[in-house]
Q: What sequence folds into this?
C-alpha cells in the first residue's frame, strides 16, 4: 500500500474493520490479519465507535459491539461514552474564548481571579506563579495526575473538597510541587483549578458555561459536562467495563472533576470539535476561537524533542508529520483522538472497556495505513538468524529491582525466544535484530541482553518509545 493510502471512500470504509495493525511489522513477512471483532474479543472490549475525518469532514462513523457485555443492545453513533481526558481540550477552548473576549489573561496569577479558593503559596511560587497558560499546558508544576471517580454508592465531593483533598475526596490535595513554568508535568489536578477559576470568574455553573462557550456553538448536541449523567440519558450510555470485561458496578463512575474528566460525548461530536480546531488553524471556520488564538492553543508549551503539550492537546511530530492528539482513560472507558491540521485528516475512537487503549491504538495504526496519514503507521524491522545455542543463553528469570513480585520469564520454544511477564500475563515472541538485540511485534519496546566480562548473560535492558531505559537483572 502506497503512502497515499486507499483513494476510494467505499474501499476505505470497508477496510477499517479488517485493517487493524500492530506497532511493528517484520520486513518480508505478510501483514497480519487483524479483525476489529476479534481484537475486541481479545481485549474484552464490548463496544467501540470510530469517527473518521477526511478533508475536514466526517467521512463516516463505524460502531461495533454492544453497550453492555453479553447483551444485544448495540452501540450506535448516538451512544454516549465518557470522554475522560478528552474533556481537557474542550475545557481549554472555553477558557481561551474568555481570554479572547478580554475577560481573562493567559499569564496572570490565577490567585488574582479565583475568589473561593487559592493556590497555596510556597517557596516554589515566590517568583513564578501559577497561570492559566501553565495550567492548560501542564507546566504549572501542580500535582495529581488523574482521578478514579466515585461509584454510585459513594458520597461525591465538592470541587473545593477535591482541591484540598478533603473527605470524601479520594485524591490527594492539589498543590504546587515544582516551580511553575520550569517543566512539563501532567496534572489533571491543574484542570480542577481551571474549573474553579472559570466558575468564580463567570458565576456560571461549569456545565452551563461549557454548553454556552463551546458545545452549543459547535452543535455538539450529544455532549455535556454533567455528572452524574441525567436519568433521561442513561439508556443511551455505554457501560464501562473492567480489563476482564466485567461491567462496572452501577455502570460507570461519577467524575465531579468535570474540566479534567467529566465530559460525556460521542465520537461524532468529538469529530466536530476536532474539525473546528483544524479549520480554525486555516482561518476557515472560527466559531469559537480566532486563527491566532487557536494557533496559541496548539503551540507546544512544554515537552521534549518533537513533542509537547499545547493548551489541551499533545502536539507531536514536525513538518509534514505534525499532529495533535490526546487520549482519555476513565474507569471502564478508553478513548483517543488525533488530527492532522495540515491535511484535514483525523479520527476519534471511543471504547467501553479498559482494554480499549491497545485496541484503539491498533485501530489508529490501521487508519494511518488506510488513509495515508504521515504518522502513526507501524514501523518495520528486519529479523536476522541467531544460533539456537545463543538463544538458550538468554533463557532464565529476570527481576526488576523496584518490582520483585513481577518477574520476567524468558525461555526458548522451537528455536524461538519467548518472553512472559507476571504483570500482564502476556506471552510474546522476541525477534532478533542481532545476536543481542530483540523486539516484539506487540510494542515498540526493544530488548538488549547484557553480558559480563566473562560473556555470561547478567541482565536485560529494555527501552520503549518514550526513551526510558530499564535494566532487568537476571537471577537464574
A:
Amino acid at each position: 500500500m502506497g503512502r497515499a493510502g486507499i483513494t476510494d471512500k467505499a474501499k476505505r470504509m470497508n477496510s477499517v474493520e479488517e485493517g487493524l495493525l500492530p506497532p511493528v511489522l517484520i520486513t518480508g513477512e505478510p501483514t497480519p490479519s487483524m479483525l476489529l471483532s476479534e481484537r475486541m474479543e481479545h481485549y474484552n472490549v464490548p463496544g467501540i465507535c470510530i469517527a473518521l475525518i477526511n478533508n475536514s469532514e466526517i467521512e463516516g462513523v463505524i460502531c461495533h459491539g454492544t453497550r453492555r457485555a453479553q447483551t444485544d443492545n448495540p452501540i450506535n453513533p448516538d451512544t454516549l461514552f465518557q470522554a475522560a481526558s478528552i474533556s481537557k481540550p474542550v475545557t481549554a477552548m472555553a477558557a481561551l474564548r474568555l481570554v479572547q473576549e478580554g475577560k481573562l489573561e493567559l499569564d496572570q496569577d490565577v490567585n488574582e481571579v479565583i475568589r473561593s479558593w487559592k493556590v497555596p503559596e510556597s517557596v516554589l511560587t515566590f517568583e513564578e506563579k501559577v497561570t492559566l497558560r501553565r495550567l492548560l499546558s501542564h507546566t504549572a508544576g501542580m500535582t495529581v495526575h488523574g482521578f478514579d471517580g466515585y461509584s454510585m454508592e459513594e458520597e461525591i465531593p465538592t470541587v473545593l473538597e477535591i482541591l484540598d483533598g478533603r473527605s470524601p475526596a479520594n485524591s490527594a490535595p492539589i498543590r504546587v510541587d515544582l516551580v511553575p513554568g520550569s517543566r512539563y508535568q501532567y496534572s489533571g489536578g491543574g484542570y480542577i483549578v481551571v474549573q474553579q477559576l472559570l466558575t468564580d470568574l463567570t458565576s456560571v455553573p461549569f456545565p452551563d458555561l461549557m454548553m454556552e462557550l463551546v458545545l452549543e456553538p459547535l452543535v455538539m448536541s450529544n455532549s455535556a459536562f454533567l455528572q452524574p449523567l441525567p436519568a433521561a440519558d442513561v439508556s443511551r450510555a455505554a457501560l464501562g467495563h473492567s480489563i476482564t470485561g466485567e461491567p462496572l458496578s452501577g455502570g460507570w463512575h461519577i467524575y465531579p472533576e468535570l474540566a479534567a474528566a467529566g465530559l460525556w460525548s460521542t465520537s461524532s461530536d468529538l469529530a466536530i470539535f476536532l474539525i473546528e480546531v483544524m479549520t480554525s488553524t486555516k482561518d476557515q471556520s472560527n466559531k469559537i476561537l480566532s486563527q491566532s488564538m487557536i494557533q496559541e492553543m496548539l503551540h507546544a508549551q512544554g515537552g521534549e524533542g518533537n513533542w509537547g503539550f499545547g493548551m489541551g492537546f499533545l502536539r507531536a511530530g514536525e513538518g509534514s508529520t505534525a499532529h495533535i492528539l490526546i487520549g482519555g482513560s476513565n474507569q471502564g472507558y478508553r478513548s483517543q483522538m488525533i488530527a492532522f491540521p495540515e491535511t484535514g485528516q483525523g479520527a476519534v475512537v471511543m471504547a467501553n472497556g479498559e482494554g480499549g487503549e491497545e485496541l484503539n491504538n491498533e485501530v489508529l495504526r490501521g487508519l494511518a495505513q488506510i488513509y495515508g496519514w504521515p504518522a502513526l503507521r507501524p514501523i518495520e524491522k528486519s529479523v536476522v538468524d541467531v544460533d539456537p545455542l545463543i538463544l538458550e543463553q538468554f533463557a532464565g528469570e529476570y527481576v526488576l529491582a523496584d518490582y520483585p513480585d513481577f518477574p520476567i520469564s524468558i525461555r526458548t520454544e522451537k528455536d524461538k525466544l519467548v518472553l512472559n511477564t507476571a504483570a500482564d500475563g502476556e506471552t510474546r515472541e522476541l525477534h532478533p535484530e542481532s545476536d543481542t538485540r530483540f523486539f516484539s511485534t506487540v510494542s515498540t519496546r526493544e530488548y538488549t541482553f547484557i553480558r559480563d566480562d566473562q560473556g555470561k548473560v547478567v541482565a536485560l535492558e529494555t527501552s520503549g518509545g518514550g526513551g526510558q531505559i530499564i535494566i532487568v537483572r537476571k537471577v537464574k
